[in-house]
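Troubleshooting entry. Yesterday's outputs looked truncated, so today I'm pasting the complete records for two proteins to confirm everything comes through intact. If either block looks cut off, that's the bug. Protein one:
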Amino acid sequence: MYLARISLNPKRSTPMDQWASMGRSVREAVDPDPDSDARVLWARVSPTTLVVSSDTAPAWGKIPGAYAATMQPPPRHTEGETIRWELIAAPTGQRGVDADAAEPRPRGKRVALEESEFQGWIEAKTAGALRVTSARWKRLGGRPARYHFTGQAVVEDSEALQELCLGGIGAGRGTGAGLLLTSTAPTG
């Protein structure tokens, strides 16, 4: 597993709101075979920083506007450790599931959640791995709307947390949503 932080020149890179275009560039940089099942998650955390988590080392020079990169293994945390977490996501839920219908649909329509539902959404998505102690978010825009979540949590299961970091959270993983980033929280 690789976790790469790629520095971008915002004047030469894909604009922040062009998630599908950036997603194609990231995918091609990590694995140019479109039929491959290589795992890739990415997030544009600022106009000048792209973070990529992948099975193989990204050829970051193939990403428009990239001029430098640092790669490291994803962090591992122990149970009981207090961590900072960060996530760019498009929180959605299923609506319209009618269990009483003659032929119930197995899934309802996926719709964007209201901000009042975000706390419950993040707690449900991280249940078993983290106990979220604080969560904040800021709207980034787009359709469905993307939000930048940050906060602190206590690690409940380090293996489950590792799986969340590797597999992603929520919808839109191919277009820059779902990458959970963690770091040790400062003490004191």
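Protein two, checking that the full record survives here as well:
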Amino acid sequence: MIGWMHHAPRWAVISACGIAAVLLFIGASAHVTDLLRHGLHPYDWAPWWLNLYWSSLALFDTLAAVLLIRGKRQGIDLACVIVATDLAANWYAAYGIQDSNLVAQPGLQRLAVFAALVLGTAPFIRRHITN
């Protein structure tokens, strides 16, 4: 492990976990709302597998947030998988399906910042969480 990662202040790690958990809960609530309003296929323009993936985030975002709050290492691991795959899925949707760009997609911009936060702080968080 890189030396300076070893010395990350515990308060900074707890803050990063808290922020990530809150943002994951916000994402989960958006996916739950989509499920309640439109079922498993909330976006008519997207293929079924992409709709199914986004709908599954109602469960996985919540699970990652709960694990982070409980101080479990699996929480940050799951959060990393979620943000990486969600960013890839949204990037594909914007560029591959909608023929759009990053400037025209504020949701993709926010997701990219969130992914940077989670992936950038993951080594610090993992260092301080024992199991």
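Both blocks look complete. Sanity check on protein two: Helices lie at 3-6, 10-38, 48-69, 73-97, 106-128.
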